[in-house]
Amino acid sequence: MKITNAYINVTSPGRNFLTLKIETDAGIYGLGDGTLNGRELAVASYLSDHLIPCLIGRDPFQTEDIWQYFYRGAYWRRGPVTMAAIGAIDLALWDIKGKALNTPVYNLLGGRSREGVMVYAHANGKDIDRALEDVAHHKELGYKAIRVQSGFSGLSTVYGVPKGSGRYEPAERGLPSEQDWATEPYLRHVPVLFARVREEFGEELHLLHDCHHRLTPIEAGRLGKELEPFHLFWIEDPTPAELQDSFRIIREHTTTPIAVGEVFNSIWDAHDLIRNQWIDYLRMTLTHGGGITALKKAADFAALYHVRTGFHGATDLSPVCMAAALHFDVAIHNFGIQEHMPHADETDAVFPHHYFFKDGYMFPGDAPGLGVDLDEKLAEKYPYQRAYLPVSRKLDGTLTDW
Question: Which domains does the chain have, with CATH numbers?
């Protein structure tokens, strides 16, 4: 079998998605997700100008060699654009493998290690009372793990909380908006929020919270310590991770588990975090981390140090990536939890899929390959629209991490 063609589809059913389709001379094709929130066209250019021409004529079963060719064979390595492009290719090739062998991808990764994949939902509200209502709503839907975010006095917009009554979607059409941030009221607010959640719902629910890179290490250590009585499943992205050693400070001050990595694009971004056991969950995605080939190595390395996976699964990744994540999650031994933000109905229609949610778990389905497809005719109805994530400033105007 040889690769005969590959092309890119960029569509925007609710938000922008980049899908790579690789075709073979056996009539089998595979799909990969190369979506990079706000930078989709940069990935498209890297694929079309540099990678796709080198794919034609190759054996799609040679996933390891092809991955090394595009990563190690390029002098300029890593970075989110490069790794999203490589990830798109890798996912599509694994999809082809599964279809050619008439088996789900999880069987190519060692088979099932569990029946279903525990997922967590996002509950939020403009204040604590509204957030509690949303927790109750998601609990009724069957979720056993819920991330909780809420607004607080002094800020008009807060990460994780929608501006209106619709779903939370941070990417906005047009140029970037600017949002205010204030750390001290946030640090006072979050322990109160989780005290109320535990008082209302007891200890049974797994509770999570995303700091979204807003804190210094010592601030994160303080927050983690104050949240210890509420037994969180994790706090996510407490501080920017360019300086991996900063997580040592957090670890020394709290036993609240730590998750990080949705912006990582290589195992090297997490090497010290893992080997020093400064984190508990790795959040890197199959798309941005270079695909199944790369993430299997990262997960195996993490397993040596009792670090589990907790992959990013927001709507800034397409159902192709979600399907791949579920196959990966059900197969590897050191799976922890999977983020689940349901896609818009328009997105699900463009990407028909076999995975499904039931009683707090998701299941990849048993279709060959990844079990997801692309309705290209329907996708044409949703043309690309430029979109950005917000920019954050402190109340005095200082630019800070969003």
Answer: 3-103 (3.30.390.10), 108-368 (3.20.20.120)
